[in-house]
């Protein structure tokens, strides 16, 4: 299955509804840390460019729902980011090493990180 079909299936979103107005990216609080803008992620998924799986954007996304609220086409990018993370996680690769994590992190941060970043 190609990446567009997988993202559509996992997110339940219609990516073709996006008309690239950029309102999602303009309101995203994490965009300064992202190597791809949220609206660019949609373009790459539609193009079937699996190179986007190497981008930090889905991992930097704070799941704040701001983009979906601002979108005039009701595209929920939060779900799309989650779908992209799932595609990567289902490769069963770990993206953090517990033994290398800083000591004395809040427990909730450790639990959240292991959910998001381990296979
Ligand atoms: S706000 Fe919606 S329509 Fe506009 S670029 Fe973002 S996802 Fe696409
Ligand atoms: S859910 Fe993610 S992509 Fe959307 S505005 Fe929040 S941080 Fe940005």
3D architecture notes:
With 119 residues, the chain is mostly helical. It has one domain: Alpha-helical ferredoxin (Fumarate Reductase Iron-sulfur Protein, Chain B, domain 2, Orthogonal Bundle), CATH 1.10.1060. 48% of the residues lie in helices and 0% in strands. The chain contains seven helices and no strands. It has helices spanning 3-11, 23-27, 38-47, 57-60, 66-70, 77-89, 107-117. Helix 1 (3-11) crosses helix 6 (77-89). It starts with a helix and ends with a helix. 22% of the residues are buried.
Round the Cα radius of gyration to an integer and report it: 15 Å
Question: What percentage of residues falls in helices of 4 or more residues?
Answer: 40-55%
Q: How are helices and strands ordered from N to C?
A: HHHHHHH
Report the biggest beta sheet as strand number plus sense, adding barrel if it closes: none
**Form type:** globular
Question: Uncertain runs with pLDDT below 50, 5 residues or more?
Answer: none
Judged by helices, strands and strand pairing, the structural class is mainly alpha
CATH fold title? Fumarate Reductase Iron-sulfur Protein, Chain B, domain 2
Instruction: Enumerate how many helices there are, as a single number.
Output: 7
Attached small molecules: iron/sulfur cluster
Architecture per CATH nomenclature, i.e. the level-2 architecture? Orthogonal Bundle
**CATH class categorisation:** Mainly Alpha
Give the rounded overall mean pLDDT.
91
């Amino acid at each position: 299955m190609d990446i567009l079909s997988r993202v559509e299936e996992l997110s339940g979103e219609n990516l073709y509804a996006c008309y690239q107005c950029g309102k999602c990216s303009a309101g995203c609080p994490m965009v300064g840390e992202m190597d791809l803008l949220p609206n660019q992620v949609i373009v790459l998924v539609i193009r079937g460019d699996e190179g986007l799986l190497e981008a930090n954007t889905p991992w930097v996304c704070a799941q704040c729902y701001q983009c979906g609220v601002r979108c005039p086409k009701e595209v929920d990018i939060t779900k799309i980011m989650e779908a992209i993370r799932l595609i990567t996680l289902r490769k069963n690769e770990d993206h953090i090493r517990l033994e290398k994590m800083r000591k004395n992190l809040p427990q909730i941060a450790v639990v959240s990180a292991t959910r998001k970043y381990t296979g």
